[in-house]
Amino acid sequence: MTTVGSRSDGLADRAATCFRDYRDGDDLAMSRLVDAVTPVMWRTARGAGLDNGNAEDVVQEVWLALYRQADRIADCQAVLQWLLVSTRRRAWAEARRSAKVQPDDQPADDGPSRVAPPDNEPEATVLRSDSERTLWRHFGLLSARCQMLLKVIATGDHPDYAGLAAAMGVSVGSIGPTRGRCLAKLRASLEADRTWEGVR
Amino acid sequence: MNRVDELSDGPLDATDERILRALGDIVSASDPVPAGLTERVKFALTVEALGAQVAELLDPTPLGVRSAYDTITTVTFTGDDLTVLLALDSEHRPRRRITGWLSTPDVSVRVHGPDGEVDVQLDEDGRFEVEFSRTGLVHLVIRFTGDPHVRPVVTPPIQI
Is the pLDDT reported for residue A116 higher than 60? Predict the structure, then answer.
């Protein structure tokens, strides 16, 4: 079993290694960096409420921006954070521009989601069990910011919870990763639901 | 919400892992990352890096008259100073072979395909052949050897 929250060989480290190799003249390293980080960036853009086409445009713009500014990024180790923060900012800007959603990027805002849900919410076929339906219902009560964060973390490398959380601007405890408020809220909400029997 | 405060500062445990895994399964199944997204990003980076022009698809056209099951075996692209014809031979599946013709032999051609990148040799008629072990996206980067000031040409990715 993997160590929960282990940072060794997490996405942040792999991304940093690729970026360092690229800056040292390894042309193919950029390709490896794109393979490693693009899925997480796409999820981040979708989390801002963008449709598939706009999310893909934002992801491409951020990669082009990285290419143009590669020399100006002081700390290779921070490249994952740079990519995810840039994606989040551009995605929210695009979401505001299309004026379909309200920005909900403030950590203090714990209200329910104000972002329009993505157009392809899970259908009955995706939610295969009662526990999944219950989980999804409670997940839907979280703030838009928490939903986005947990979607990215849940679909990333699980051992890299700490790396991803840090890259997305969530503090990580000094003794290791803590749940943080988003996951804590989801779990408390599930615990308070008598129909919840956990997932295997 | 004391329970939330208490949980927030606690370390991740096996229950959290199961919740995250179940959530990850739902999100991945309902909203998958689009196929070909990373290839399209790499293509955009190639075009940017080369300051290249993207060749236009000339033929086959119009796509609308073709049946959905037609396999397209030849494709033509054109740039400012160049035309490229590619013919696909997939008789020896899963291997694929592309034969290409360029309107001028005074170019260098690098093929980006499912097996990686390869520099191909053109004969005096501007013809080349390249084989791939499997399906995937292919694009060409064409540089003018005679005049380095002419912008390179990149063909849009095609699925082979």
Answer: no
Q: Flag whether the ipTM exceeds 0.85.
A: no
Say how many domains are in chain B: 1
Q: Does a structural domain hold residue B127?
A: yes
The pLDDT tens digits of the residues spanning B70-110 come to 566 888 999 888 999 998 887 777 788 899 999 988 999 99
Predicted confidence (pLDDT) at residue B138 exceeds the cutoff of 60: yes
Residue B43 lies in a domain: yes
Longest dimension (CA), chain A: 57
Choose, out of A33, A41, A42, the residue to mutate when testing the contact with B (most B CBs < 10 Å).
A42
CA dihedral sign of residues A12, A17, A18, A19: positive
- Quote the pLDDT of residue B91: 76
Burial class (CB within 10 angstroms; exposed 0-12, middle 13-18, buried 19+) of B144: middle
Contacts of B11 in chain A (CB under 8 A): 4-5, 173, 175-179
In this structure, is residue B155 part of a structural domain?
yes
Say which CATH number the domain at B149 has.
2.60.40
The whole domain housing A66 covers: 11-191
What whole-number distance in Å separates Cα of residue B71 and Cα of residue B90? 10
Which residue segment(s) compose the domain that B110 sits in?
Answer: 37-159
DSSP tag of B152: P
Q: Hey, what's the torsion of the CAs at A33, A38, A39, A41, to 10 degrees?
A: 120
